[in-house]
Amino acid sequence: MAVKPPLSELPIKTAENGFYRGFSVNVTVISKIIISLLVVWCIVWPTQAGRVLGDWNAAILAQFAAWYIWVVTAFVIVCIGLAIWPAAGRLNLGVEGEKPEFSNFSWFSMMFGAGIGVGMLTWAVAEPVAHFKNNPSVIQGVTTALEADNVRTAYVWSYLHWGLGAWACYAIAGLSLAFFSYRRGLPLTIRSSLTPLFGKALSGNLGHLIDIVAVVATILGVAQTLGFGVEQFVAGLTRIGIGGLAHADGSATTLGIIVALLVIMGASTLSALSGVGKGIKWLSNINMVLSIFLLGFFIIFGATFFGASAFFVGIWDYLVALPWLSFNVYASDGVEGSKSFLLAQWQGWWPVFYWAWWIAFAPFVGLFLARISRGRTIREFVLGAMIVPSLMCFVWFAWAGGTAIDLELNGNANGVILDAANGDKIFAMTEFMLAPIAQALAWAMAVVIVVLLMTFLVTSADSAVLIVNTINAAGDEGPKARPHIMFWGAALAFVVGGLLISGGTGAIQTAMVIGALPFSIVMALMCIALIKAIWNDGRREAAGVASTIDPETSTMPAE
């Protein structure tokens, strides 16, 4: 049977004039309607929305917990397999011989800042502390809450949630998009990654549906991140002396939410208008430098040796436990308060929630990674987008979280960090460490963290706005997107602000878990399509048939 060249054209109908000129009206308008209806529903009928979303969420956790856990395991296996597979690992995510657009430092800075950086300022301290208080080993009576014998287990779970599984979700999406867009010349949008399975049918309603699912998942995933970030940003402003923005319990007031969103979304919209190569690049470089400074502070002045042990021993424990953790699903017996019930409940609160969060974030981060990774090989991409960021997260968790655990374990902190809200834990810890030396130092460190938090939030938000517009514009990210950049910046602010003001992050957290489910199916299909495409490219190479576009014409060379 003759070997045919791959599909290199996927026409997507876009409007020729008017406000939506250059955009797929089907994808853009329907996405806006879905998001708008969700926001109106949650704000106008919060009780009903909370009940219905809660019921859906409970059903998903009961019926699809195993799916979330196993599909993320599949992503890890596929990514590592492609990097190791010689025929795949050497392939350029572009035409042969193409060089990367960004330096390694800028590439990694943008990838880390958009993908997960903002989470480090909340969860690098809060999550190890949370698992130090409770995790499956504590529930089963194997280890003791808040005691030394529970430290290693706390780090196994922390590393699981922020390690290879998280970054594999991003890497699969990024690999698929870069491969089919820059090697095949297909539009830089989600539907292109499924062309080996569905071919030209993706030009129509099937392709529209896939892109709509991606846009909705992106907005909900980013809104979840910004919701956590806004609460922490307000906590930081309160720590540096700006009053009236937080309640007595530390939660943000309506004024605090509005102020935070005006600052964050205003800056992010301006940054997005300047494009990836200017605003986003420079913001990413700034927050990487500030991150190194803050992390250096914890390594040098925090629990240096405790952190080193948590890092090296924690990675060993994580890798040893990974095969079991990757497939284990706790089954509830339905008896509230029983061990099996509590284990299944805990797994829903932590691993399943995280896998849904990373999957919801994947279209945004994946498309962004593809945009900044053109010209790199698959092996280089997997190393840079999966292995290195995981290690960076482990460093943060080891020394930032390790310092918090050590201060509480030896009794010095006396509950100051444990009792603080999740977003306030890093501020409580640095103030506890520096205030006895000089209050001015504690205040200055709080300012550094607030600035770093803002740059991370702005980077995530402006990247998300650009990505949503790229999907809506059938893969085109040209200047015609400017008014739509402003629209989605405002829309994202209203989504976050409306849900926070009407009832905190609970409703959007539930909606995000639900919204991630259909996109998890799309991502599973991405894996199959990518493997099929690479396998067929090997056959094409053997037969002398071109598998990449001609860089001069952006089309497949004539046979």
TrEMBL record:
The keyword Transport applies. Its main location: membrane. It is a multi-pass membrane protein. Keywords: Cell membrane, Membrane, Transmembrane, Transmembrane helix, Transport. It comes from the Bacteria. InterPro entries: BCCT_transptr. The chain crosses the membrane at residues 23-47, 67-85, 105-126, 159-180, 201-223, 255-276, 288-316, 352-369, 381-399, 440-473, 485-505, 511-531. It is found in: Cell membrane. The keyword Ubl conjugation does not apply. Belongs to the BCCT transporter (TC 2.A.15) family. This is BCCT family transporter. The lineage of its organism: Bacteria, Pseudomonadati, Pseudomonadota, Alphaproteobacteria, Rhodobacterales.
